[in-house]
Design a protein that fits this description.
This protein is α/β, with parallel strands linked by helices. It has two domains: 129 residues, Sandwich (Immunoglobulin-like); 345 residues, Alpha-Beta Barrel (TIM Barrel), CATH 3.20.20. Helix content is 26%, strand content 28%. The strands form six sheets. The chain has a nine-stranded mixed β-sheet with strand order 23-22-25-20-19-14-1-21-24, covered by helices on one side. It has an eight-stranded parallel β-barrel with strand order 2-3-6-7-8-9-10-11, surrounded by five helices. It is globular.
């Protein structure tokens, strides 16, 4: 056993509580995410609403708490009224974001119905590209108004007399980018944001507003300073990954670094806002996109190494639970998807398996956890999508510890990023003595490039087991390239 590894959990030091919205997802009108993904009319696998039943059950299994829609870039030229009313009367429009025709057969009512079917809160992103404030207000009225307005009555006319009570509303998407319809400077965006947020909350004071963050401190500071008193979240987007194993898993630490930078920006701006309630962080687009420069780059077939990246992100989000309270994988199905479908069925990727592991086998209360680990370096510069940066002194072992709300279960989630070596690690529970028997849940596969597919859907999966040596101090051997959850029973 190498003395350089150790996990120590302090049960007396509670860091905070995990917001379940960190396990959220995102669907956009892009590729086969919605059409032929979650929604496929006339398919024998779909129900009478057009929802793929097999996809629906897979999404329920990971208890999706929050679903973002309609974009993404698509949101910046989407006019929501095109997507309501009788489907055969809805107009086909040209989509500027993805250079394609949009049928509008999946619109607001279908989205809300899908959220209700999977038990998720809806998160709608409004159009500030080709749209305007009136359009956003009318959308909010359509979804949430209980009054006698035109749009409340229109919702009832379309078969939905009860308000949808949509809580989460994003104002724009990536408006810092020249690729975006509605590209603006930070000052221009912050002014628009402040106006939208203020008047949307006049219509419904209970909603939460998500602002566009740029992963650029100057932009983010301007946005929070100008509009911070009217917003509840600022977003951050991270697309990372590499064909190289260590570059891919190392990108977990880049996500951590960027989120901590944004946290610092909010803390700097806080005194200027004079608001007691801090703006939270929404990591509302994140994923591996390691073939992002290839011609056909939408339907990634993720490997175990990508699943370990996702697991590592969850460990980071546990540790940052006080500031990061929303995250949305981009995307749910087919397009960089956690789930892949064809006409005859589906399979679940290693990234889906990471969700399955953390959603179903970790707790809600985050405990202070000390991890001692040997480290590694990335030689030269690592290429994560379009980013280049150097990374050094990265731990092979990372972990978080969480308690169930009932405090009868303690979960230790540990990722061993060492590609070749298992890690024999002492675990200290600070005097707490659990039951000797503990359950083991392990995300692993035969090698780091292992993938699932239609022929071999369970090459990468969660293995289960038991140990009988749990105590206030015990040893556990974490296999190479794996993420393990140890579920301990509190006496």
């Amino acid at each position: 056993m190498r003395e350089s590894y150790r996990i120590k959990v302090d049960l007396e030091r509670v860091i905070g509580k995990i917001d379940p919205n960190i396990y959220g997802h995102f669907v956009e009108h892009l590729g086969r995410c919605i059409y032929a993904g979650i929604y496929e009319e006339d398919s024998p696998l779909s129900d009478e609403r057009g929802f793929r039943k097999d996809v629906l059950e897979a999404v329920k299994n990971i208890r999706c708490p929050l679903l973002r829609w309609p974009g993404g870039n698509f949101a910046s030229n989407y006019h929501w009224e095109d997507g309501i009313g009788p489907k055969d009367q809805r107009p086909v429009r040209f989509d500027l974001a993805w250079n394609k025709e949009e049928t509008n057969r999946f619109g607001t009512d279908e989205f809300i119905e899908y959220c209700q079917a999977i038990g998720a809160e809806p998160y709608i992103c409004v159009n500030i590209g080709t749209g305007n404030l009136d359009e956003a207000i009318h959308w909010l009225e359509y979804c949430n108004s209980t009054g006698n307005t035109y749009y409340a009555k229109l919702r009832a006319k379309n078969g939905h007399p009860e308000p949808y009570r949509v809580k989460y509303w994003g104002v724009g998407n990536e408006n810092y980018g020249e690729w975006q319809v509605g590209y603006r400077s930070a000052k221009e965006y912050a002014k628009v944001l402040r106006e939208y947020a203020y008047f949307m909350k006049v219509v419904d004071p209970t909603i939460k507003i998500i602002a566009v963050g740029a992963d650029e401190p100057d932009w983010d500071l301007e946005v929070v300073k100008t509009a911070g008193k009217y917003i509840d979240y600022i977003s951050n987007h991270q697309y990372l990954g590499s064909d190289d194993y260590y570059e891919t898993v190392a990108s977990v630490y880049w996500v951590k670094k960027r989120l901590k930078v944004l946290k610092s920006v909010i803390e700097i701006a806080q005194p200027l806002m004079k608001e007691e309630e801090k703006v939270k962080i929404a990591l509302d687009e994140w994923n591996i996109w390691y073939r992002g420069n290839q011609e056909n780059d939408l339907e990634e077939n993720y490997a175990l190494k990508d699943g370990l990246f996702a697991a590592g992100v969850f460990i980071v989000l546990h540790r940052l639970c006080q500031s990061v309270t929303m995250a949305n994988l981009a995307q749910l199905v087919n397009v960089l998807g956690a789930i892949h479908t064809d006409k005859g069925g589906l399979y679940l990727t290693p990234i889906y398996r990471a969700f399955e592991l953390f959603v179903n086998h970790t707790g809600e209360i985050v405990l202070d956890t000390l991890v001692k680990s040997e480290t590694y370096n990335i030689e030269g510069k690592a290429h994560f999508g379009r980013r280049e940066f150097e990374l050094a002194n990265l731990p092979y072992l990372d972990a978080s510890a969480t308690l169930s709300t009932s405090k009868d279960k303690l979960y230790i989630a540990a990722a061993n990023y060492d590609k070749e070596e298992g890690i024999e690690c002492p675990i200290f529970l600070g005097g707490f003595s659990p039951s000797a028997e503990a359950r083991i849940y392990e995300l692993s596969g035969p090698d780091v490039t292992a993938t699932n597919d239609f022929e071999n859907p369970e090459k990468v999966k969660i293995k289960t087991g038991m140990i009988k040596n749990a105590a206030s101090k015990f040893n556990y051997s974490f296999p190479p390239h794996s993420c393990t959850v140890i579920e301990l029973n509190v006496k």
